[in-house]
Every structure is written in C-alpha cells, then in structure tokens.
Amino acid sequence: MTRFGAAMQKIDERIPGVDLPLMSVSQTKGVVRRSELTDAPQRAESLDAYKVCRKGDIVFNKMKIRSGAMGIAHEDGLVTYHYEVMRPREDMDPRYIIHLMKSSWFTSELIARERGISAGGEHGGIRTTEVPFTVLRTIDVLLPEIDEQRAIADYLDHETARIDTLIEEQLRLIEMLRERRQAVVDAAFDALGEPSVQLRRYIKFLTSGSRGWGDYYADDGERFLRIGNLPRTNLSIRGEIQFVSLPADVTEGSRTILEAGDLLFSITAYLGSVAVVDGDWVGSYVSQHVALCRLDSDRLYSRFAGWFMLTTAGQDQLNHGAAGGAKIQLALDDIKGLRVPAASVAEQHRIAVHLDEQTEKIDALIAETQRLIELARERRSALITAAVTGQVDVREAA
C-alpha cells in the first residue's frame, strides 16, 4: 500500500494568452473538448486563469468525483478551477489510476474522509462537496509494478468496453420505447381531429395553492402535493411524500383540498407535467406551484383531458401558453384557454382506458431495461474494484 500522493503530482500551470482548446470532463467520455459536449458560449471572457492540462494528465471534477467525472487528457488543453489536474509519476499507468479512482473501494475511502472536507455549497438545490487533491493524496492505495498495472488496465479496458456497449444498447432501447410510447399516445387522438373546445367550458373549480406551507411541514399529518410529485409521462402522482400539520385556526388550506379525479398542472416549473388525483392523494393539500382543475365529469373525463395534455399537441400548448409565445409559467387563465378535442364521454373513457393499458405495458418494458442497466453498472463497478484490489487474477481471467 502506498499513499496516493506518492503516485501523483498536482499540476497547477497557468499560461496567460496560450492558444489551447477548452476541455471538459464527462462521466462517460472522460476528458474531451468542451465543444463536443455543448455549443453554449464559454462564460469567462478570458482564459488566462484557466489551468493547463497536458496529454497524459489526469483531470477530475472536484465536485463530481464520486460520480466518476474524471479522465485522461488525450491532448493539451485548458480546464476551469472546478477541475484538478494530476500527472502520474514514473512507472504509473494513468489508465490504472483512473480505474482505481472509479472503484467502489476508492469511493468508500472518499466517503470516510468527507467529514474533513469543506462543503462546496448549494448547486441546483443539491448539497455538494468539493474533493481536492489534498484529500486524495492521503489515501493509501494498492499500486503494483508497472507491468501488472498495464495488465490490469488492459483487462479492465476490454471488459468495461463490453459492458459499456451493452449499456449503450439498452439506453437506445429505452429511447425507442419512449418514442413508441409517445406515438401511441398521439395516435389515440388522431381520429378526433384538432383540439377545438376550450377547457373553460368544462371547469367547475380552478385554483392554485396558497403560500407559506413550509411553516406547516411535519413528520405526519395530511399529504402535501408539491410540483415534484407531478409526472411527465403518465398521470400517476409520484415521488417523496411530504406531510403538513395545520393549526386549527388555519383555514386557507381548505380551498385546495384534493378530490378524486382532480386534474393537476405544473404552472411555475416543469411545464408539461400533469396528473390526475386518486388513491391516497385524495384529501391532500396542493402547493402554490400547482393548478387544481376540477372538471364537470358528466361532460369531460379528467383522464381523457390529462392524456391529451401529454400528446405532442397538448405539450405544445402547455410549454408555449394557450395564447402562444414562450413562458416560464402559466396563469390560471392560460389553463382555462387550453383546448381539448371534442368526443362523447363514452369515447373519452375508451381512449383513456386504452392508454392506461398500453402505456403500462411499455412502462414495464422500460423499467425492466433500466433494471438491466443498473445491474450492468453494478457489475462494472464490482469488476473494477475486484481487479484493482487484487481479488481477481487478470492473468487467469485473460
């Protein structure tokens, strides 16, 4: 066992005015030119403060190291301060080092040191932790002779490439299934023609939740539906359950108590998310970011309306607003102005039941494929860990 810092040298080279490509680190592609990942313009006006990475250097994202955001630079380039640049010392194969850093064993060593790592702050509502080289250098790692490092790296390159190919095939299958799913939803409404009736003609009650619910969050009580509970591909409410406990003198919530069959829309973010209330969510309260639409069920079936809003045409209305033009939120008047196709109630029920059944079958296939991907990723991680910790003899495996 050897200290990681004995195998790697931290590099912090800055060359103002140097003409080198801007690089990024991808969890799947490693170190690549930023232009391969995005066409968005760079944020900084000057690259003078950026670090230089040389061909063969190892680069990792300090805030995403545990998710595998690292790789070997295949050309000289520039990277931002979010990245650390390391150079393997003599008799070190950088491929072996990358596999070592991606092993679950190495990740567990990072976790064990997290109490001593300063927090990186909030990013998109998620607490992040920076892991600098000064932390990595203290980890005791298994560093065999260079020939064995190369043998292990060759073995893992070959085996992980096979697993990665399998994962890519499964991801393509999921994409095909999702396209098929959308086609099924769209096709169910084709015979009805263009949406011609505004939702306002069927609405009995329309509102959104009041503010200040965070003051009433509790470990038990009544359910509180938030915008994150709304799905994007079906009508079933999902996600983490938040409870609220209202004092006896608070009556504002009674206006937004959910009833079976209520149609829900996201109105401040994730525009396009729709759900229909049923089961344990009946009697829940709703947040200010969600519109509660109670329809005349004798004339418009809420699941029919909900499924139509998940068609390409329905999503266009929600994402651009009923009156047209890009919006970052929907007003209640926008909800009233949404249009649905005309159909008898019997036909509405037939279409909704058909879509419930057909999408459930496709969703089951997607879920099974996602489980296969997760198993493949677990297999990949276990294989890497076994190889770099000496649990498998790569000479026999070859």
How are the SSEs ordered, and which strands pair?
Blueprint: E1 2-3, H1 4-7, E2 8-11, E3 23-26, E4 30-33, E5 51-53, E6 58-61, E7 70-72, E8 77-79, E9 83-88, H2 94-101, H3 104-112, E10 119-123, E11 126-129, H4 133-136, E12 140-141, H5 146-188, E13 197-198, E14 203-208, E15 217-218, E16 222-225, E17 242-244, E18 263-266, E19 274-276, E20 285-286, E21 290-295, H6 302-309, H7 312-320, H8 332-337, E22 339-340, H9 345-388, H10 394-397
Parallel strand pairs: 16-20
Antiparallel strand pairs: 1-12, 2-9, 3-4, 5-8, 6-7, 6-9, 10-11, 13-22, 14-21, 15-17, 16-17, 18-19, 18-21
Helix pairs in contact: 5-9, 6-9
InterPro entries: Restrct_endonuc_typeI_TRD, Restrct_endonuc_typeI_TRD_sf, Type-I_RE_S_subunit
Enzyme class: hydrolase
Family: Belongs to the type-I restriction system S methylase family.
How does this structure look, described?
With 398 residues, this protein is of the alpha+beta class. It has 3 domains: 2-142, Alpha-Beta Complex (Adenine-n6-DNA-methyltransferase TaqI, Chain A, domain 2); 144-193 and 347-398; 196-340, Alpha-Beta Complex (Adenine-n6-DNA-methyltransferase TaqI, Chain A, domain 2), CATH 3.90.220. 35% of the residues lie in helices and 20% in strands. The protein is built from 10 helices and 22 strands. A 4-stranded antiparallel sheet has the order 2-9-6-7. A 4-stranded antiparallel sheet has the order 14-21-18-19. A 4-stranded mixed sheet has the order 15-17-16-20, with no helix packed on it. β18 (263-266) and β19 (274-276) form a beta hairpin. α5 (146-188) runs antiparallel to α9 and α6 (302-309) packs across α9 (345-388). The radius of gyration is 27 Å and the shape is elongated.
